[in-house]
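*** Backbone structure tokens ***
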Amino acid sequence: MYGDVRMNGFKWTRLAEWKHVKAAFRPVFICACFLWLGIVLIYPYTRLDVPDQRVDLAGTWKMMFDDRAEFAQSGYDDSHWDLFELPASFLLKATHYGNGYKGVCWFRKTVVIPDGMGKGDLGICLGRIGNADEAFFNGVRIGGLGQFPPDEFSMWNHPRNYLIPSALIRLNQENTIAIRISYFGIAEVLGQMFIAGTKGWAAYSTIITYTQITTYYECMALGSGFLMIFLFFYLKRPEDQEYLFYCLQLCFGAFVLLDASSYWPIMTDNLTRFKLLGISWTGLNVAHPIFLHRIYNLRRKFIERALWINLLIVILMNIWVVDGTILRPCGILMTLMGIGMGGYNLSCHVTALIKKRPYAKTFSFFGIVAILCASHDGFVYMAKFSGYSVHFMGYEPTTMIFHIGAMVFYAGTAMVLVTRFISVGDEVTTLNESLETYILENTLLNDQIIQISKKNDSKSISSTAEEKLKQVINHIHANYLEGLTRDGLADVVGVHPDSLGKQFKTYTGLKLGDYIYQIRIKEAAQRLREEDTNIIDIAFQVGFDSLRTFNRAFLKFMNTTPTNYRKDYRKDNTDD
């Protein structure tokens, strides 16, 4: 480049240097995103190994829908209790034989721990228990998560991993495990259940807690950063509404993440918690498709109005209608609607790819993965609210992966931000190039003026005629896109058309028509470089009344055709 251009604090000096930086930066950034996703999400799951030496607790347990302190004792006679297979949801059994969707129940199991397990402490994993639990081993409480009524607090997604002191363990004898469970809507015991040595138990507990809880907080921390960035962008450019709806997604999604991972009571009323969860998921299913509409430039006002009306109805129903008696059907209905919205969101990505919308190739992969993760969790919620297991070719969705989808979504967002940054850089370099062309053209124009002035010294043109010629030239530059004629220009300065033509040729060295054509061709050349408009449209836009005349004039002044000019320009820029 012949000069430097400063924009918003950045200094861009050479087009070639920027293109080399861009070419190197994009693949490096893509690799960095996938590496980060692999380390944060994929690698921990490869380490999620259940210890080989263990006592499995999955299988038949004794169950009772009642709540007495004596149930924890190892000597208690539970022979009259019902049998139940764990891990599983016990919602259907609770609604038929227990206290309905809400209550307290107990599970008991007797196990023999062999000598091979060692003489030290052991660890027990009881999976995920909703909503709160207390675990007892041989009559002694060894742990618990969540809070029982009246100040209830659900920790339904937290793994229950407790340490069993060696003093409580009876090797080669029967040991009694008792679990007291508070359930509200979520009535289940899911996940791996076993007793193992402390080393294997600790390794498994650390990884399972990381994948199911810690990553939620990583996701919220990352989301907070993106919230500040996109909120700043929206405040700077409120007309770009995709920033606003991205922020709304983060706000609605935050409660979904907290509901599954919080260690502290946010709501001491589980019914209110369910209502907020329903509003949050519905809000997420409103903000996300509208965000896709904005980023992909999809004009679907009717659908957006329907989404807002749906959110309003859900809010009003949760405030005045939903109670414990209709919690399950409302939860099932909202879950089905959420799964359906996942299908619609997928269609937005497919439409954008087919129509080759900006950012579709960059963002669609990450967006589709995030939607599939959210839809997967829709089936998880469906199983919780209905009590029936959902199977896909032998796979049963029981573990939430919304946080994984959110992480992937953030990676896709980062890709879009980088793409936009590169686009801004391209715009700046294009501006540099246009400025350089402008400088060169003005330099040539100045040279022409000097040459004309020298010619004028030897020509006999009066000062009055010169003033009129300058007036004609200024009028041409101001109106060259319009239909200019020699007679019209002569009327502007009040001279005879023939006299104007002769004096103009003497003053500029060009015929009047050629001078006008030259200006129009320069404008057309710039549009060919910067726009994808059809050549015939450009011809008419710059003032030509036929494509044939335009092509002939372009060839005369540019020594090439408009089509070849555009191809050669783009080829040169691509090669750079």
